Amino acid sequence: MQGATTLIRRHSFEPADNRRLAHLCGPLDAHLRRVEAALGVSLARREASFRIEGPRDGVERAVRLLDELHAQAAQPIGERALQLALVKYAAVAAAAPTGAEPPADVVLHTRHADLTGRTPNQGQYLRQILAHDITFGIGPAGTGKTFLAVACAVDALERHGVQRIVLTRPAVEAGERLGFLPGDLAQKVDPYLRPLYDALYDLMGFDRVTKAFEKGQIEIAPLAFMRGRTLNHAFVILDEAQNTTREQMKMFLTRMGFGSKCVVTGDVSQVDLPKGMASGLVEADDILQRVPGVAFTHFTAADVVRHPLVARIVEAYDRHRGDGEHA
Fold it and tell me: Which of 6, 103, 137, 208 gets the most CB atoms within 10 Å of its CB?
């Protein structure tokens, strides 16, 4: 790591607290190795003193990250908390040009008091949802596209910015043939809509969600049921939009009424439509880029906030697809 841009910095935590240091470093210093890999620095520790070597911006981010993790280290640092912190600090360099002030965070009012974007793309996504009537979030699994959209919807409902939330997705099977599902209509479409229920329960709590359904404040329906409707004063989310046809996408986008917001999410690398059928999301990404009032956020593997292996899997598939295109 020697070179003109290399910086060596020493950072200590005083007074030393061995228990807190053990939680910070992780078993056999596993947390420190994760910090090294995420920020491109080298870390060495002797008791409460750390030696950090690497590019200047990486070293400075590592110091801030260690301080944040140390503040959380009264208890063992869980895998989720560590991964979120790593994603946050690994992405800081791309947030704004050197010397520029990063945009203010959007903080949403849900059961998670501190819910905000963890990466620059997530922050941009939230700001675009607030500023535009229609927002597209396109990218791989684990980037928070659906969860953040539902969080914005919950926030708008709680602040009385909208009168109801409408969540929908196409009922397309992911590469399997499940046959005829038993039960009434609601029971038949439930498996396709379960991820949206999960997000609502996490953000509002089971009792609050149940009451909102009873009052008609939340509606979940398959995309086919949107035809012929006009949705006024609603926050509308179309999830798994890569599995819409061209006709379905146009039909959905023209359901918007007065006082409504619409968010469309999807992953164009996971299209489950029959072979040869074009994705409505892919076409919309091409057609609507220059339409005023419509915004797009394209997520990458760097925005994945699930298990770190998910990001590496996404990157591997992207490389394989790129190699195939050039073969």
Answer: 137
Report the pLDDT value the prediction gives residue 100, as an integer from 0 to 100.
Answer: 43
Whole-number Å distance between alpha carbons of 148 and 196: 11
Q: Is the pLDDT assigned to residue 43 strictly greater than 80?
A: yes
CB 103 within 8 A of CB 96: yes
First to last CA, the chain: 35
State the Cα–Cα distance between residues 114 and 112, nearest whole angstrom: 6
Please write the tens of the pLDDT for every residue from 82-95: 877 777 776 654 44
For the cut 50, the answer to whether the pLDDT of residue 313 exceeds it is: yes
Q: And the tokens for 272?
A: 């489950």
DSSP, res 163: S
Tell me how far apart the alpha carbons of residues 133 and 294 are, in angstroms, rounded to a whole number.
7
Largest CA distance in the chain: 68
Task: Tell me the residue length of the chain.
Answer: 327
Reference 76, options 15, 25, 132, 146; nearest CA is: 25
* 170 CB burial (10 A radius; 0-12, 13-18, 19+): buried
Q: Is residue 174's pLDDT more than 60? A: no
Position 3 pLDDT exceeds 50: no
> Is the peptide bond preceding residue 15 cis, with omega within 30 degrees of 0?
yes
Position 262 pLDDT exceeds 70: yes
Q: What is the CA radius of gyration of the chain?
A: 22
Q: What's the rounded Cα separation, in Å, for the pair 155 and 267?
A: 24
| Of residues 168, 171, 142, the one with CA closest to residue 267 | 142
pTM to 2 decimal places? 0.69
